[in-house]
Design brief:
Elements: E1 5-8, H1 12-23, E2 28-32, E3 44-47, E4 50-53, H2 64-73, E5 78-82, E6 85-89, E7 92-96, H3 100-107, H4 109-124, H5 133-141, H6 143-149, H7 151-158, H8 167-173, H9 179-191, E8 212-216, H10 221-233, E9 237-240, E10 242-250, E11 255-262, E12 267-272, E13 274-277, H11 281-287, H12 295-299, E14 303-313, E15 323-326, E16 335-338, H13 339-342, E17 353-361, H14 366-369, H15 372-385, E18 394-407, H16 413-427, E19 431-433, H17 436-439, H18 445-461, E20 478-479, E21 486-487
Parallel strand pairs: 1-2, 1-13, 2-9, 6-15, 13-19
Antiparallel strand pairs: 3-4, 5-8, 6-7, 10-11, 11-12, 14-17, 14-18, 15-16, 16-17, 20-21
Helix pairs in contact: 1-10, 1-18, 3-4, 4-5, 5-6, 5-8
């Protein structure tokens, strides 16, 4: 029996799957809850001609297959952009990656000396077995630099103390970087401006220090709009404004019966031999009929939500950075994007620019529940507080709310996900989970795409050649196991987790 595939969600993972399957003439149907945009969190919003990201998406990957696919979809529209970012702390801006003499001048000679002494103290008296993000970073950089450059921003993003976040997340997210490598890089940059800061000295790329990336000239949504166009051109169907309602497997005929609710409240019915889901695990399990035993574990999974307040400012040269990290506890904004610096085509007219002030929150907290007008007013005040623009320069603004932007990793999340995965794989071999929320893993765009790529190969082969859950932070995999078997490299994507999580 030939396959026909139903895909839940038109984000990077879902559209990658649909693109590759229709390329092989596999009948494919996609549903997307959003009525307007494909791309999920990688979409490009349009407000009166101003284009902006939900978070800013660099197109950089160590996976040649992912890069090749980007080139295939947008062969002439990916532009090379310099990475320029800074940290705002204590009324001053610090280049990131660091510039040695600038950092020295901004911190002051006394504070710089104290930072070095704090680092040396940790080299003599380190945390022998660092369990927390706080302990790991202070071992690598010293207590004072942890407080300046890591604590506030990390706690804004994740809504928890750095003493609750595990050390293994820090080790992955800041891989290959400590005070000495950061200082050595800063000195190389100061002495030789053309030196490649991504070279850690042994040829290994340190992601934190990468200084250029590619970007679609009209935002990341351009990639997914084109992927969706080609899916439709090949005969695939993409139904916008459709939310998953019910998912039931008929073992007698080996097919899935899918019900989706349209935006107008009516129901639509679909069928398929295989289902690929990039929907949040919690929503997927609630839709399964009968409800799975793991439903309680799925209901306990939580998500961090995200607000972008886009402000139109009458100043086109406000700052050159792509983004600025706000390490300032007196304001709630966590990061500020300058979309004109991502690509000049993001701004429709001269004399103005569009900034995106990013706020991390939970859907049930006060920040999420604020009105658009109050959020725009707060963002205007905070932009002035960090010295980037005055209120009279703000000509317009809008708010975009993104639910479930980041899976939350509490102390029990892993055992819950493992239980869900085990039951669904045993009960429904033709149900395939992909992507960030679909797997409750902190995947970047390229990692999400790789999970879809491997899933498509499994479906086309009619058996499990690849362990999609093994895609690691570099989206690497290798051949292993018995004859004819290919298994992904077993590596857990490291994520912020409270201390005490089950290994």
């Amino acid at each position: 029996m030939s396959n026909d595939v139903f895909v839940i969600g038109a984000g990077p993972a879902g559209l990658t799957a649909a693109y590759l399957l229709t390329k092989q003439a596999v009948p494919t149907t996609v549903i997307e809850m959003d009525e307007r945009y494909v791309g999920g969190i990688s979409r490009t919003e349009n407000y009166k001609g101003f284009l902006f990201d939900i978070g800013g998406h660099r197109f950089f990957s160590k996976s040649k297959e992912v890069v090749d696919l980007w080139n295939e979809i947008l062969p002439g529209d990916l532009i090379e952009r310099p990475r320029l970012s800074r940290i705002y702390y204590n009324g001053r801006f610090f280049s990131y990656p660091l510039k040695a003499f600038e950092a020295l001048n901004n911190l002051g000679y006394l504070e710089s000396a104290l930072c070095v002494l704090s680092y040396l103290h940790k080299q003599v008296f380190p945390h022998e077995h660092p369990d927390t993000f706080h302990q790991w970073v202070s071992n690598q950089f010293g207590e004072r630099l942890f407080s300046i450059f890591f604590k506030t921003y990390t706690e804004k993003v994740w809504g928890m103390s750095c003493d609750e976040i595990s050390a293994d997340w820090a080790a992955q997210r800041i891989k290959g970087l400590d005070l000495w490598s950061a200082m050595a890089n800063a000195l190389r940059r100061s002495m030789r401006p053309q030196a490649d800061p991504s070279d850690g000295g042994d040829g290994e790329v340190i992601k934190t220090l990468i200084e250029s990336f590619r970007y679609p000239r009209r935002g990341p949504g351009m990639m997914w709009d084109e992927a969706a166009r080609r899916v439709r051109e090949r005969g695939g169907a993409i139904h916008m404004g459709h939310r998953l309602e019910r998912l039931a497997y008929d073992r007698a005929c080996g097919r899935w019966n899918v019900t989706a609710r349209r935006a107008d409240g009516s129901l639509a019915a679909f069928g398929a031999t295989d289902v690929i889901s990039s929907a949040p695990i919690r929503e997927l399990c609630r839709a399964l009929d009968p409800l799975p035993r793991c439903g309680r574990a799925a209901d306990a999974l939580r998500y961090r939500d995200f607000l972008t307040v886009a402000l139109v400012v009458r100043n086109e040269n406000i700052f050159p950075d792509n983004w600025i990290y706000i390490h300032e506890p007196s304001v709630k904004v966590g990061r500020i994007q300058n979309f004109g610096s991502w690509s000049p085509e993001m701004t429709p007219r001269a004399g103005v620019t569009c900034l995106g002030l990013e706020y991390f929150c939970f859907e049930d907290d006060g920040l999420w529940g604020m009105t658009d007008a109050d959020l725009i007013a707060m963002a205007t005040r905070e932009l002035a507080a960090v010295g980037l623009a005055q209120p009279q320069e703000i000509e317009d603004g809008c708010v975009v709310r993104q639910r479930k932007a980041y899976p939350v990793y509490d102390e029990h999340y892993r055992e819950r996900v493992d239980a869900i995965r085990q039951e669904l794989e045993e009960t429904y071999p033709s149900l395939h989970l992909v992507g960030r929320n679909g797997m409750h893993k902190y995947n970047n765009q390229d990692h999400a795409m790789m999970t879809a790529m491997l899933t498509c190969r499994n479906i086309l082969a009619g058996r499990k050649l690849y362990d999609v859950w093994g895609v690691n932070e570099d989206a690497e995999y290798h051949e292993a196991g018995g004859a004819g078997t290919v298994e992904a490299l077993r590596s857990v994507r490291q994520v912020p987790q409270p201390v005490g999580r089950v290994a």
